[in-house]
């Protein structure tokens, strides 16, 4: 006789919502026989441009690919220095190195967790050519202050909005609509998921034509076969992925609303857990587009122990996210060390992401928070 308890169903970190509409549009593409560079891509681009209120959008194979093409279009040159955040996914700094530029980090605001404009101003030097702010965890960076800094120092701006589709900035505008090159990402845990994929938001037709060409091996604007007029990359997104994205865009507001509801459940319950810091409330006209739910554990907590305890209870969790400058490659190449950016380091050491996706129910949140409370106790 087996007296063992039944295995707990694992509550995963993320779960994309794929339904009948996605299946239909993907099937339409498959039946058409045109799997890339077909009509579905432009439809997806127009949907995202319309949603953000931007003139143009160019779909690419990933958010990283989009950032790479965006900084090239902005005018980055070898030897340039570009100011960005140390608390981000590593791609936002990696793309600068692709172009033989140097990422210059500035510490973050302890409340919003985005780059602190005052700290960024301290980092401007003779070689600084641009700013690459990150809208971390779906909350808009302080764009008015950063744009003023850029204007005063003749700097370009590329916005890493890969985690922020649907976010509203302090002026009440959609992130991506300010006229800067901006990039969204569509990894499976994002607000809109295509599997892999991204979108570059462009203010002019000239920029869009450049991005469209460089994503396709530098092909000529008329798309002449094997007519490549400039250096380019294979950064195309397939029509299959575009079909998924188009279907997702049609229900984006609904998915964002349900993400907000899940986040509210989390914050309400976690407010009763001593020492835990929850994501900041929306300030002024800012409105977060909920990408992940990341809390900060009490100082001195053994985070690895908490993660293992949650795992035993069937709750997925992750440290989210480590600072870039203390990654092995960056420490070896640039000589970074602990203490260089203390606010970002403190946040990174205490951050923990819990399961988060639109279809979560209130009972799922209760289960996760109960397990967390037990682990902390």
Give a written overview of the molecule:
The strands form 2 sheets. The protein has a 7-stranded mixed β-sheet with strand order 1-7-6-5-4-2-3, sandwiched between helices. β2, α4 and β3 (102-105) form a beta-alpha-beta unit. The chain has helices at 20-32, 40-52, 63-74, 91-98, 117-122, 143-153, 205-214, 239-250, 252-270, 303-312, 328-334, 342-350, 362-376, and strands at 56-60, 81-84, 102-105, 128-132, 156-160, 181-185, 198-202, 293-296, 351-354. It folds into 2 domains: 20-250, 3-Layer(aba) Sandwich (Aspartate Aminotransferase, domain 2), CATH 3.40.640.10; 252-376, Aspartate Aminotransferase, domain 1 (Alpha-Beta Complex), CATH 3.90.1150.10. Helices cover 38% and strands 11% of the residues. The chain has 13 helices and 9 strands. The relative contact order is 0.16. The mean pLDDT is 96. α1 (20-32) packs antiparallel against α8 (239-250), α9 (252-270) runs parallel beside α13 and α10 (303-312) packs across α13. With 377 residues, it is α/β, with parallel strands linked by helices.
Highest-level CATH class of the largest domain: Alpha Beta
Summed over residues and divided by their number, the pLDDT gives a mean of 96
Sheet with most strands: strand arrangement: 1-7-6-5-4-2-3
CATH fold name of the largest domain, please? Answer: Aspartate Aminotransferase, domain 2
| Helix segment tally | 13
Indicate the low-confidence ranges by residue numbers: none
Can you name the CATH architecture of the largest domain? 3-Layer(aba) Sandwich
């Amino acid at each position: 006789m087996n007296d063992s308890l039944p295995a707990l169903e694992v509550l995963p970190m993320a779960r994309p919502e794929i339904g009948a509409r996605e299946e239909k549009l993907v099937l339409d593409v498959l039946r058409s026989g045109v799997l890339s560079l077909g009509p579905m891509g432009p439809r997806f681009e127009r949907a995202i441009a319309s949603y953000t209120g931007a003139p143009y959008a160019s779909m690419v194979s990933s958010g990283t690919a989009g950032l790479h093409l965006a900084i090239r279009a902005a005018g980055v040159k070898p030897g340039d220095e570009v100011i960005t955040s140390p608390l981000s996914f590593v791609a936002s700094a990696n793309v600068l190195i692709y172009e033989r530029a140097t990422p210059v980090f500035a510490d973050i605001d302890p409340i919003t967790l985005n780059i602190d404009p005052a700290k960024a101003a301290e980092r401007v030097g003779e070689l600084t050519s641009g700013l690459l702010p990150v809208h971390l965890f779906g909350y808009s960076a302080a764009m008015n202050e950063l744009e003023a800094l850029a204007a005063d120092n003749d700097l370009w701006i590329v916005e890493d909005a890969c985690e922020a589709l649907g976010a509203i900035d302090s002026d009440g505008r959609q992130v991506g609509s300010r006229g800067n090159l901006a990039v969204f990402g569509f990894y499976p845990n994002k607000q809109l998921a295509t599997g892999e994929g991204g979108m570059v938001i462009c203010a002019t037709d000239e920029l869009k034509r450049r991005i469209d060409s460089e994503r396709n091996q530098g092909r000529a604007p008329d798309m002449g076969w094997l007519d490549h007029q400039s250096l380019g990359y294979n950064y195309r997104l397939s029509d299959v992925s575009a079909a998924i994205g188009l279907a997702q865009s049609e229900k984006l507001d609904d998915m964002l609303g349900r993400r907000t509801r899940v986040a509210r459940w989390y914050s309400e319950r976690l407010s009763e857990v001593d020492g835990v810091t929850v994501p900041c409330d929306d300030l002024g006209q800012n409105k977060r587009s909920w990408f992940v739910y990341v809390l900060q554990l009490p100082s001195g907590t053994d985070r690895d122990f908490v993660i293992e305890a949650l795992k035993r209870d069937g709750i997925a969790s992750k440290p989210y996210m480590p600072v870039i400058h203390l990654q092995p490659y960056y420490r070896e190449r640039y000589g970074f060390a602990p203490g260089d950016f203390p606010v970002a380091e403190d946040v990174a050491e205490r951050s923990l992401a819990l399961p988060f996706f639109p279809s979560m129910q209130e009972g799922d949140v209760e289960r996760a928070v109960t397990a967390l409370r037990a682990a902390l106790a």
